Structures are given as structure tokens and as C-alpha cells.
Amino acid sequence: MILPIFFMLSFLLSSSSCNALDFCVADLKTPQGLAGYSCKKLELVTVDDFVFSGLHTGNTSNLIKAAVTPAFTAQFPGVNGLGISIARLDLAVGGVVPMHTHPGSSEIIVVIQGIIDAGFVSSANKVYFKTLKTGDIMVFPQGLLHFQINAGTTPALAYVSFSSPSPGIQILDFALFGNDLPSNIIEETTFLDGAQVKKLKGVLGGTG
């Protein structure tokens, strides 16, 4: 009786190991769907698919004086399907990452250099805010509005990890004022006056 059971277990284990995938390196030549990219053929996978060397610098010469350098699936095919990714955050003095959400991911930030004010707003509109120093870590739950601001007098650096290889992002300011949504709709839904809406559209590139 023991011998047939042994052979059956051996068969099941060998079958599962043959069918299981250790990884699914993204084939960036295929369309990205809700489940990610299709898998690259195993014979085409190399060690370089699992290495990313693009997090060395960030250019903060922009409106918000901040740079987010991502290592998501599109830049780092090896994370496809693994439920993880990472990014580098550079904040010049006065730099800010405005209120934004990641629809597909929670986020953890670890401060490497400088001082960063960070926080998020819960669905009950309660604010969770903290001044983070070097070595501090904070988590931002999936889908909630959150922000980061350089609160010091020197540049700040942090690394940010996500619970998705493609977390997505929607920045509140650009969603409201960086597109062609009619100004009167924005005025009615935000209680801002026309002059404020026009000014913000001008700064953030919106029309209408």
C-alpha cells in the first residue's frame, strides 16, 4: 500500500514542478493587460532581465522640484507577475510630490537622506501625517491620497517599494487642472472661483 502512494506523490510533485513557472519575465513587445505582460519565452530570458541599473540619479529641475525614477515592469521586466516593484524619489529643497494615489498598489517609503513630511488621508477623511528622518519608514495603503514634501534645507532621497509591478498613479492636481475638463465643471465640483481655476490650468497645462 505504501509503495503505490509513494509513486503517486512522486508523480504529482513532478507534474506540479513541470507546470509551475518560477517567473514570468515581461515580453514588452506584447500588449499590457490587467494581469500584466505576457511571459517572454524562457530561452530568451537572461540575467539582465532580473537586474536594473537605472536608480542612480533623479532630475529635479521641474515644476514640483521632484523626480520619481521607477523600476516598474516597463523598465524592469523581471518583476512582471511578482507583485513587487521599486522607485527612487529625489526631492530638491522645496520639492513636493503632490496628493496622488496608486490605484493598484500599497506603498512603503524608506528615507535615505534628508527630512520628508509625508502623510495620507483615509476614506473617513482622517489625516495620518509624520515628519520622517533618515532611516524612517512609512506605509501608504492602496488607493488612498498621499503626499511627500522635502521638509529640510538639503536635498532628500528615498526609495519607495510597491505591492505591484505596475502600481499606476493619478496625481490629483493634474487630474483636475492638467487636462481639458471644462473650467465651469471644476468650479462647481471644487468650489474654487474661476480666476483660481484659470491660474491652475495655466500652471499645469490644462485647457478649457
Automatic annotation (TrEMBL):
InterPro entries for this protein: Cupin_1, Germin, Germin_Mn-BS, RmlC-like_jellyroll, RmlC_Cupin_sf
Alphabetized Pfam families for the sequence: Cupin_1
Protein family per UniProt: Belongs to the germin family.
Protein name: Germin-like protein
UniProt: Mn(2+) binding residues: H100, H102, E107, H146
Domain Cupin type-1: 53-198
Annotated S-S bridges: C24-C39
Compartments reported by the entry: Secreted, Extracellular space, Apoplast
SMART domains the UniProt entry points to: Cupin_1
Domain of life: Eukaryota
Residues at which oxalate binds: H102, E107
Main location: secreted
GO molecular function, one term: manganese ion binding
Endpoints of the signal sequence: 1-20
GO cellular component: apoplast; extracellular matrix
Keywords: Apoplast, Disulfide bond, Glycoprotein, Manganese, Metal-binding, Secreted, Signal
Classification lineage: Eukaryota, Viridiplantae, Streptophyta, Embryophyta, Tracheophyta
